[in-house]
Amino acid sequence: MSTHTHYDVAIIGAGMSGLAAGIRLAHFGKRVCIFERHNAPGGLNGFYSIAGRKYDVGLHAVTNYVRPGVKGTPLTKLLRQLRIDRDEFALCEQKQSRVTFGPRGAAGSVSLRFTNDFAVFENEVAQNFPSQIDGFRALVAAVRAHNEVSLDAKPVSAREIVRRHIADPLLEDMLFCPVMYYGSAQEHDMEWSQFVIMFKALFFEGFARPFDGVRVIIRVLLEKYRAAGGERRMKCGVKKIITRENRAAALVLDNGEEITATHILSSIGAVETEALIEFSIFDSRFSIGGAAAPFSDWRGSAQSKIENRKSKIPEGRLSYVETITVLNRQPADFGWGDDTIIFFNDSPRFNYERPEHAQVDTRSGVICFPNNFAYPGDQQLPEGLFRCTCLANYDLWKNLSDSPGEYRAAKQRWFGDIAASAKRFLPPLAQPAALESATVATDMFTPLTITKFTGHAAGAIYGSPVKNRPGRTALDNVYLCGTDQGFLGIIGAMLSGISMANYHVLQK
Ligand SMILES: Cc1cc2nc3c(=O)[nH]c(=O)nc-3n(C[C@H](O)[C@H](O)[C@H](O)COP(=O)(O)OP(=O)(O)OC[C@H]3O[C@@H](n4cnc5c(N)ncnc54)[C@H](O)[C@@H]3O)c2cc1C
Hints:
By secondary structure, the chain is of the alpha/beta class. It has helices at 16-27, 74-81, 86-89, 118-128, 133-145, 158-165, 169-181, 192-205, 214-227, 270-276, 295-312, 394-398, 404-423, 434-438, 447-454, 489-506; strands at 5-12, 32-35, 47-50, 53-56, 91-93, 96-101, 110-114, 208-210, 231-233, 238-244, 247-253, 258-266, 277-278, 319-327, 339-345, 360-368, 384-392, 439-445, 478-480. The protein is built from 16 helices and 19 strands.
């Protein structure tokens, strides 16, 4: 008699998509367990403490925010499907954000402001690019008309479609910069549906944040999951998926234990899920010509087929660094105003690509001031926070991983360079030394941190550039959700978990 624990569904990863899938399945009476390698839930959107201070790992803003009463959007759908009251997330709206190309005072520098009211953005485009406004409106109509969640849409270049409407390359790049930084695993271009998802998430909908950061959202998800009877095993990664006849027959955990599950949802990425699969001699995909093959042939054939398929799922190349500066004053006290998020670029064209020859590319980036959300009763975060994200090269950071001294020195060097680059896009400081003397703590994550929190190969922030909307894998009962299924961000990842749970498990 088998002593294995059996689940209806095993979920790999307790990030946003895994937690949301778990809640949905547990609500429908499934026996479900989430296996998480890390000691804390949240994945890329978790939080950590240093010296008693809590830091969000990735959160700048929750995208897709809509006000109460707006129906049929990702946020409202996910609240309904997870039976969450919107007040539980306690989301507070952004004040205002902008895309700025060209440093302060430089000839040709342009800013496009936006808020959670799309009319503000449209008006900014009309003011700054009067010759492009008709094209911009036509683009907006195309975005509205597109069904971005279709599971069988053919991939199309977003650059091509945007260029049909927008002739000015500066405006084109200013539209791509925010949507790429917040959700493109592809360099230079995006798949059109992905562009539409992100355009709606950022500009039609908008930004919000709970006063206490991402831990509010994680707490709500964990409570719902527990109350619905879901099980969770932390510090308990999945090491291997054992197959039999094209199905996952068992999961081997990091501690060597084996469990079985009728369905497996993996939120860890396509390449990373494939890497767990250990094909069995009984897997018909690896029989040769339908007949039993000598073991040596079988081995060779299986190996080459695995390699073959792996090459079809490209690893992501894009990674980020982020600096966090904690201040004993609010950002506004430095004359930095009310901006919540600033997407910046200093080059003639916006280069969304992995920097080949440097660990970090400081030419463009994202500044985030978590203080600048409209918190209830004009409440203020107790400390100022200045976060700045730039593109980074995983391999060049990885080369330093064996030398803690060099790694630390590189972090220190880039911390200064990133802050210097970002400050060019902020109002000048009255006293340049003021920032340093107001700094009470700093931290920085690198591509290696991303791998630590997500397990993503090559620190790929948004996973593989090729997304797998139906979430199917080589195995009939293993499905993808989250980053590599294609919906990104906190809300996108949760919706991905819900939709894959519905599609592959509940609707079967
Ligand atoms: C720097 C940064 C800033 C971001 N900012 C925002 C933002 O402001 N707003 C926003 O909406 N989104 C933001 N995002 C995007 C958002 O964080 C992600 O899209 C989303 O959290 C992905 O969730 P997920 O569940 O798909 O994957 P993940 O968060 O990657 O979760 C996967 C989980 O699987 C676990 N795991 C990996 N391998 C194994 C294994 N073998 N066994 C068990 N467990 C395993 C990992 O530890 C992890 O917990 C940001 C991302 C980054 C990196």
